[in-house]
Design brief:
The chain is α/β, with parallel strands linked by helices and 733 residues long. The protein has 28 helices and 26 strands.
C-alpha cells in the first residue's frame, strides 16, 4: 500500500471522468442525431441527445457532461449561442463543433468562441471518434492539472511534481529577463533541457518576429488584474534537437500569461521588482487547425492548387500591378476534352489521378510568377502576368496543348487527353476580375464548339448565346419562386379495355414573355445549372398533391409516372425527398412510378442500385424510359427493381418496317417473360394500335388516345374511367 500522497493522487484518488464518459450530442437533423448516438454508444459512451439549441441549454443546465458535440446551423438557437452559454454555465466542458458550414469564418469563430475542436461534415466515423478521444484526453489532463495546482502550496515536493508534470511551459525570470526556473515541459515542447536555459535571456526562445511583443509580455512587470493574459506568441525550438511534428518545423505557438513578481519583504512604497512568472500554453494544434481550415477555404483539396476564390484574389493584385507597370496580362480557361467519358468508364479514382497528373504537367509549362488554379471538375485557370504581347500567350498555350497531348499512365491505363483553351487579355478585353474570368470561359466553350484541342481568344460577339443561357437560368430560378411551372398529364391506357391505368406527369413552363414552353426549351439549362434539383422536388410535391386529390375524391386508383433527371438521382437527398413526398401526402407507394433512362441507371451502377432498392422496398415503382435506345442490358434488368418497360416512340412510329416490328415484338416478349408491365410510347395511328395489340403489349400512350391534359381534364378522364377510351371514344389530341 502506498503512503506517498503524490502517488496516491496518481493512483485514482481523483477520477477525471467516469468509466463511461457522458457526451451530449446536439443536432437538428434526426438522422444525424440517431447516427451519432449509435456510433458513440457502440464505443461505450453514455449518450444524451438534444434536437436543437434550446433543448441543449436545458440539458446543460440540468447536468454536467464530459464533452458536447455541437452543430452550428440550427433553426431555433444557433451553435454559437450555445457555445456562449457553455462558457458561462459550464466553462470546463469541452465542445466539439460538428458542422456542414464550409465558410472559414464559421470554423475560426467557433474555435475562438471556445470550441475545443472543429469537424467538418461529412466526416469519417473513426476520425470523429479519434477527435473525441483526444479532446477527452486533453480535458482529463486539464482537470488533473487544475486539481494539482490547487494543492501547490501544501509542500515543496508537491509543487515541484505539479509544475514539472504540467502540460504547460512554466518559467520564472529575474529582473534582467534571464531564466531562473523552467519546468520539464520545456524539453518536450521546445527541445531544450531545463539546465540549457537557466541563466539565458528569454529572447533565446522567442521567434525573431515576436521579439518586440515579447518585451512587454514575456517579462511582464505588471501584477494583479493588469497583467498579460492569453497573449499569442511564437517560441523557437532548439535547432540542435530532433523535434518531430513541429509547427513549420522550427517553432511552436503558445498562449502566454505572465505576471510581475515583487519582493514581499520590501515596504509598500518601494515595490521592488524581482522578476516575472509566466505560463505558456501550447496552442500549436489549434493554430494548425485554423491554418488547415484557411487552406481548405482557398485551395482545391485534390490538387492543392488555388481555388476560384484565391485565383480571384491573385487576379485582383496582378490587375493593380499591371496598371502600374502598363503591361498586359492574360487569363486562360482550360477544360479537358471528354474527361467525363474517362471518369464514367474508368471510375473517379482514375479520374482524380489523371487530374493530379494534368496539374503537374501544367505547372511545367508555366513561368515563375504565373498562377495555376483548379476551378472545379476538369476546369483549370491560368493567370499570365507581365506579358510582352499576345504572342506570349500563344506560345504558352501551344506548349500546354503539346505537353497534354502525350499519353498519361495511371494505374496500368494509358490515357490520351486533350485540352481546349480560352484566353482574354487585359486591358484590351477589360479590367474587371469576374468579367475576365467569364470571358475566358466563354472563349474556351467556343474552342470546344470549333473542334476542341485548340486555343480561342475572346471576341465580343461570343457573349450573345451565353447571355441567353444565363437569362434562361435566371428566369428558371424566378419561375420556380413565382410558381410559373405546371404539370400536364398524359394517360397510359390498357390496350385491351381502353381504361386509364396511369398517367405520366409532364412538366411545362408558362414563361411570362415566351408563353408555354416544353422541357426541350429549358431542361438542358436546368440540368447544367443544377436548377433541375429544386424543380424536380417541385414536380414530386405537385404530382403527389394531385394523387392525393384524386384519392380524396374517391376516384379509381391509378399510378402516376414522374421523370427523374441525372442531377436528381445523384443528389444525396434524392431518396429522402421522394419518401417525404409520399409521407406528407399519405400516399400508397405503389401509386408512384419513377421513370429513369437506361443511360442514367448505368452512370453510377452500385450507388443507383442502393438508392432505388431503398425506394422499391417502400413500394415505389421504377420504369425504364426510352427502352431500347441505351444499354438494353440484362445486367441492370436483373439488378434493379424494375416494374415497367417503356418502349421508345422511335420504334413505335416506324412499325411499318419489318425490322422494327421484330425489335418491338422482342421487347414486349422479353418484358412479359420477366413479368414486367410494357408501355408503348408515341402511339398516333390506328394501325400502330392494331400492331401492338397483336403483339400483346400491355399499355399504350400517345396522341392517338390523348395529348397531355391539365389536372382538371385528367380528373374528368378518371371520373369516366369505367367507360374507357375504346376506339370510337378516344380523346383526340
Amino acid at each position: 500500500m502506498s503512503h506517498d500522497p503524490v502517488e496516491a493522487e496518481q493512483h485514482g484518488s481523483v477520477s477525471a471522468f467516469p468509466v463511461r464518459p457522458h457526451v451530449l450530442v446536439v443536432d437538428d437533423e434526426p438522422l444525424i442525431l440517431e447516427g451519432l448516438k449509435r456510433l458513440l454508444a457502440a464505443r461505450e459512451f453514455d449518450v444524451s441527445t438534444a434536437g436543437g439549441g434550446c433543448d441543449a441549454l436545458i440539458a446543460i443546465g440540468k447536468q454536467q457532461f464530459d464533452a458536447i458535440l455541437l452543430d452550428l446551423g440550427m433553426p431555433d438557437l444557433n451553435g454559437n449561442e450555445v457555445l456562449r452559454f457553455v462558457a458561462e454555465r459550464s466553462p470546463g466542458t469541452p465542445v466539439i463543433v460538428v458542422s456542414g458550414e464550409s465558410a472559414i469564418d464559421a470554423a475560426i469563430r467557433a474555435l475562438r468562441g471556445g470550441a475545443a475542436d472543429f469537424v467538418r461534415k461529412p466526416y469519417e466515423p473513426e476520425e470523429l471518434l479519434r477527435r473525441i478521444d483526444n479532446v477527452l484526453a486533453r480535458r482529463r489532463l486539464e482537470k488533473e492539472n487544475n486539481h494539482i495546482l490547487q494543492r501547490l502550496q501544501q509542500s515543496e515536493k508537491w509543487h515541484r511534481f505539479l509544475v514539472n508534470s504540467s502540460p504547460d511551459f512554466i518559467y520564472t525570470l529575474d529582473k534582467d529577463g534571464r531564466f531562473t526556473f523552467v519546468n520539464e515541459r520545456v524539453e518536450s515542447l521546445l527541445g531544450y533541457r531545463s539546465e540549457d536555459l537557466l541563466g539565458q535571456h528569454y529572447s533565446l526562445v522567442v521567434h525573431e518576429d515576436d521579439i518586440a511583443r515579447a518585451e512587454h509580455v514575456f517579462n511582464e512587470r505588471r501584477a494583479g488584474d493588469r497583467n498579460a493574459r492569453n497573449i499569442e506568441i511564437r517560441l523557437k525550438c532548439n535547432p540542435g534537437a530532433r523535434r518531430p511534428r513541429l509547427m513549420n518545423g522550427r517553432c511552436k505557438s503558445v498562449e502566454l500569461t505572465a505576471t510581475g513578481m515583487y519582493d514581499e519583504q520590501a515596504s509598500p512604497f518601494e515595490q521592488r521588482f524581482i522578476g516575472s512568472y509566466g505560463v505558456a500554453k501550447d496552442i500549436t494544434e489549434r493554430k494548425q487547425a485554423e491554418e488547415t481550415v484557411h487552406f481548405q477555404a482557398y485551395h482545391d483539396l485534390l490538387t492543392g492548387l488555388p481555388n476560384r476564390a484565391l485565383f480571384r484574389d491573385h487576379l485582383g493584385l496582378m490587375l493593380a500591378q499591371a496598371k502600374r507597370n502598363q503591361k498586359p496580362l492574360a487569363v486562360l480557361s482550360l477544360d479537358l476534352d471528354h474527361f467525363k467519358v474517362i471518369n464514367d468508364s474508368l471510375g473517379h479514382t482514375i479520374g482524380d489521378e489523371l487530374l493530379l497528373a494534368v496539374g503537374a504537367r501544367l505547372r511545367q509549362c508555366l513561368r515563375e510568377g504565373d498562377t495555376l488554379a483548379r476551378l472545379g471538375g476538369d476546369e483549370f485557370a491560368v493567370l499570365l502576368p507581365t506579358l510582352a504581347s499576345r504572342g506570349d500567350v500563344e506560345h504558352i498555350c501551344r506548349k500546354i496543348i503539346q505537353v497534354l497531348s502525350k499519353p498519361v499512365y495511371v494505374k496500368g491505363h494509358e490515357i490520351y487527353i486533350s485540352v481546349s483553351i480560352g484566353a482574354c487579355v487585359s486591358p484590351d478585353d477589360g479590367d474587371m476580375i469576374d468579367s475576365l474570368i467569364r470571358q475566358a470561359e466563354i472563349a474556351m466553350y467556343q474552342a470546344k464548339s470549333q473542334g476542341r484541342c485548340r486555343l480561342q481568344f475572346w471576341e465580343s460577339g461570343m457573349q450573345a448565346p451565353y447571355s441567353e443561357r444565363m437569362q434562361i437560368e435566371a428566369d428558371l430560378r424566378r419561375g420556380l419562386a413565382r410558381n410559373e411551372f405546371v404539370l400536364f398529364y398524359q394517360p397510359q391506357v390498357d390496350t385491351g379495355t381502353g381504361e386509364v391505368r396511369g398517367f405520366e406527369a409532364l412538366l411545362r413552363w408558362w414563361h411570362p414573355q415566351r408563353g408555354l414552353l416544353t422541357p426541350a426549351d429549358f431542361i438542358p439549362v436546368a440540368e447544367e445549372s443544377g436548377v433541375i434539383v429544386p424543380i424536380g422536388d417541385w414536380v414530386l410535391r405537385q404530382a403527389s398533391a394531385q394523387l392525393a386529390e384524386w384519392q380524396r375524391a374517391g376516384l379509381p386508383p391509378v399510378r402516376l409516372s414522374i421523370n427523374i433527371s441525372a442531377r436528381q438521382l445523384e443528389n444525396p437527398d434524392f431518396v429522402d425527398s421522394v419518401m417525404r413526398a409520399i409521407q406528407v401526402y399519405a400516399l400508397d407507394g405503389h401509386q408512384m412510378e419513377l421513370e429513369i433512362t437506361e443511360s442514367l441507371l448505368m452512370r453510377d451502377f452500385e450507388a443507383n442500385a442502393i438508392k432505388l432498392g431503398r425506394l422499391s422496398a417502400s413500394g415505389i415503382r421504377l420504369a425504364i424510359d426510352d427502352f431500347g435506345t441505351g444499354y438494353s442490358s440484362f445486367k441492370y434488368l436483373s439488378r434493379f427493381p424494375i416494374h415497367t418497360l417503356k418502349i421508345d416512340q422511335s420504334f413505335v412510329q416506324d412499325l411499318e418496317r419489318e425490322e422494327n416490328i421484330s425489335i418491338v415484338n422482342a421487347m414486349i416478349a422479353m418484358g412479359r417473360g420477366m413479368n414486367l408491365n410494357v408501355v408503348a410510347e408515341g402511339v398516333e395511328t390506328e394501325s400502330q394500335l392494331v400492331r401492338l395489340q397483336q403483339m400483346r403489349c400491355h399499355e399504350m400512350q400517345g396522341y392517338f388516345y390523348s395529348a397531355p391534359v391539365s389536372g382538371h381534364e385528367a380528373t374528368h378522364l378518371l371520373a369516366n374511367r369505367a367507360r374507357g377510351f375504346g376506339h370510337a371514344g378516344r380523346a383526340a389530341g
